[in-house]
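Lab notebook page, bench 4
Experiment: in silico fold of construct C2
Operator: M.H.
Input chain length: 157 residues
Purpose: comparison with the prior construct
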Amino acid sequence: MELDLTDWALLDTLQHDAGFSNQALAERMSISPPTCLRRVRRLREAGLLLGEVALLNEDAVAVRLGWGLTAIVEVTLDRQGDEHASAFEQRAVADSAVQQCWRVAPGPDFVLVLRVHDMPAYQALAERLFTQNANVRNIKVFFATRRAKFQTAIPLK
């Protein structure tokens, strides 16, 4: 599928704020509403738009719930075969406390971003994912004290 400048502008606009009505988006793009709707559908069908979500302010939500601990964890596996990495990855992504799971190289095999209630909840998660897994050789944990930047937009320009 060939993308023109309008398609790229639509993707850029939607990744920053997908809350526009079709009418407002069409006006912003200087195209007709039917054309805008057709283009957005085409971008979605091509797999360039995965979905539309509301991004919550994690810190504000945590304050209202009275909790929140974010940890970034480097995980090194003992056995490096793809079947071993896939098995760990499946266990990690199945856990709701795992916000992000990245396979990385070089260095550790995985980097996880975790969001848990408190330190006891982290300890329970560490037991589930790391201690009980005979293939986890080493972990290195960083507890977040402040997030200076969070962005979901991909640079398109």
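Observations: Strands lie at 69-77, 98-103, 110-116, 136-143. The longest helix spans residues 33-45.
Next step: discuss at group meeting.
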